[in-house]
Write a structure and sequence with these properties.
This protein is α+β, with helices and mostly antiparallel strands. The chain is built from seven helices and 13 strands. Helices cover about 30% and strands about 25% of the residues.
């Protein structure tokens, strides 16, 4: 029988404690120095950890800031002194976040991964980069202000971007973009996690179990390593390297009592 070969508790718990320590350091700095301070970009899983940490310690005077409004998938956690109003905090956004607008030649089109891999090739850490909003004409890359000059100077040196035009833009110039979806239908014998991973990743059940053991599967932005975890309608599943999906509805059952599930894959 295929069993979980890795335990996520030690690694997951260590990562959680490290993140909480970083958050506490930023909070203490804001309090002791009476200055606005912020974390690097957090993914949605890390945001959940941060929200729980803030609730448990009853910390106030903070906000999460992305660049794609309510659709932001990567956000910074910003702390501000108690004496600051939100209006005062907003005036500091330009010193923290900005956008790099990449305009491609008319005959060229890149996907999200093309932009991200290029940025990472320059040695920039992933946590310095927020959402990458891909458009027909190019992309708006949301970044921490501290790396914007470096990126604007060095991105044109990459072969893929040699004919592109680069502009530094403010957060106000970035237009929010709703996620795009591809609708699909899958058939599963039960609502277990491993069944869904196999169908969504279009692989065998044994390979699906490997993906789970490799800690590449997240349910509602949280790591999940239990094969028998029940998946519910409305759940968001992320399989690293395979895509991100919303479990939308049960369309019907087959004669063999299998579930026909409608899902949406993020574009």
């Amino acid at each position: 029988m295929f069993k979980n070969s890795r335990k996520d508790v030690p690694e997951g718990e260590n990562a959680r404690k490290l993140l909480e320590a970083k958050i506490e350091d930023k909070h203490q700095f804001a309090v002791s120095k009476n200055k606005i301070t912020n974390t690097d970009f957090l993914n949605l899983s890390e945001k959940i950890v941060a929200e729980q940490f803030l609730r448990e310690r009853k910390i106030k005077n903070y906000l999460f800031l992305g660049g794609n409004g309510a659709y932001s998938e990567r956000v910074i956690l910003l702390f501000y002194p108690e004496k600051f109003s939100l209006e005062m905090v907003e005036k500091n956004y330009a010193n923290i976040l900005c956008g790099i607008r990449i305009t491609l030649p008319k005959d060229l089109h890149y996907e999200h991964r093309n932009y991200l891999s290029g940025i990472l090739k320059l040695g920039i850490k992933r946590e310095k980069i927020g959402d990458i909003l891909v458009r027909e004409t190019g992309a708006d890359v949301i970044v921490l202000k501290e790396v914007s000059d470096f990126l604007s100077t060095n991105l044109p040196s990459l072969t893929r971007f040699q004919k592109a035009i680069f502009d530094c833009i403010s957060m106000e110039e970035i237009e929010t973009k709703e996620p795009e979806f591809e609708e699909r239908t899958i058939i599963v014998s039960s609502m277990r996690l491993d069944n869904f991973v196999a169908e969504l990743a279009r692989t065998s059940r044994s390979k699906a179990m490997e993906l789970i053991n490799e800690q590449r599967v997240f349910v509602n932005h949280q790591l999940e390593t239990k094969f028998s975890k029940k998946i519910n309608l409305g759940d968001i599943m992320n399989i690293r390297g395979k895509g991100k999906f919303i479990i939308e509805e049960i369309d019907h059952k087959t004669k063999s009592e299998k579930y026909v599930i409608k899902i949406k894959k993020y574009g």
